[in-house]
Amino acid sequence: MLQRIQTLLLAIVAMAMLSVTALPIWEKSSATLNEKVALNSIALEHSKGTTSLSSEGTIFIVMLAIVSATLAAFSITQYKKRMLQMTLGLVNSIMIATVLGYTFYQVFKVGIPMFEPENQGSYGAGFIAAVVAMLCNMIANRFIRRDEMLVKSADRMR
């Protein structure tokens, strides 16, 4: 059953969450003030020119992203236990939502107010990867549930 569509979707979830750890999540820059704020999975860094003004650790993002990728990879191997697989998918959805929520907190409460609050900045590939992971995880859970309902209906007919 490894050839099922949910296996492909869960593999995309694992790869997307691993890419969150390596890609930039958000950044904002000002040409007039020569300041820049960048958020990646490890830190929110505020710099002016080439000097770093402040750096706040966001190791929580990288930890949750790695656990989420590991959970998705483990869920692929549990294709014979669909109820467990659905539960793992639910837990993984909560983890990815926590990553996105913490990212929004860092962007809106910490990053944007640093300078030029009217400049919202731009989201990077890391944020898009987390959103893709969330969507693929939700779709994979639908396919897993559909398989479970198909098996239950076949058992009823016997």
Concise synopsis of the structure shown:
With 158 residues, the chain is of the alpha+beta class.
Folded structure, characterized:
This protein has 158 residues and is an alpha+beta fold. It has a single domain, classed as Butyryl-CoA Dehydrogenase, subunit A, domain 3 (Up-down Bundle), CATH 1.20.140. The chain contains 4 helices and 5 strands; from the N terminus they run H-E-E-E-E-H-H-E-H. The chain has helices at 5-22, 59-77, 82-111, 125-157; strands spanning 26-30, 35-39, 43-48, 51-57, 122-123. The longest helix is centred in the last third of the chain and has 33 residues, at 125-157.
Helix content: 55-70%
Quote the distance from N terminus to C terminus.
Answer: 22 Å
Structural class label: alpha+beta
For the report, how would you describe the main beta sheet?
Answer: 5 strands, antiparallel
Count of helical segments? 4
The percent range for strand residues is: 15-25%
Stretches where pLDDT is under 50 for at least 5 consecutive residues are none
Annotation, overall tally of beta strands: 5
CATH topology tier name: Butyryl-CoA Dehydrogenase, subunit A, domain 3
User: How many separate structural domains?
Assistant: 1
Strand and helix order: HEEEEHHEH
Strand order of the largest sheet: 4-3-2-1-5
Q: Could you tell me the radius of gyration in angstroms?
A: 19 Å
CATH architecture: Up-down Bundle
Class in CATH? Answer: Mainly Alpha
User: What does the average pLDDT come to?
Assistant: 89
Shape field: elongated
